[in-house]
Write a structure and sequence with these properties.
Helix content is about 30%, strand content about 20%. It comes from Profundibacterium mesophilum KAUST100406-0324.
């Protein structure tokens, strides 16, 4: 069976940089494929699975694909989908000084 190269959303690098900027550890998982979320994030002794979608795309283009829907459904933990840096930081509970 031939595997396609993992598609990385346009905003993933920016989100990873922001998460690391507040002290989170980030392990990209997009290469795992089979519907697995894009990022495993460690922050304040918690592990968070994050699926990154490009918020600039129309909703139909950023919907979970069939494998992602299946993976999320079968996972017995939490997976959160984010479309922006602000959403990613909110998910992990990070606060940015204004």
């Amino acid at each position: 069976m031939t595997r396609r190269a993992a598609k990385v959303d346009r905003n993933q690098a920016e989100i990873v940089a922001a998460l690391r900027g507040v002290g989170a550890t980030v392990q990209p998982l997009h290469g795992v494929g089979q519907g697995c979320p894009d990022l495993l994030v460690g922050y304040r002794r918690a592990n968070i699975l994050i699926e990154v979608k490009d918020g600039l795309l129309p909703p139909s283009a950023r919907a979970l694909n069939d494998r992602q829907v299946e993976w999320h459904r079968d996972w017995r933990g939490t997976v959160t989908t984010v479309k922006s840096v602000d959403e990613a930081l909110a998910v992990i509970g990070a606060r940015i000084a204004s």
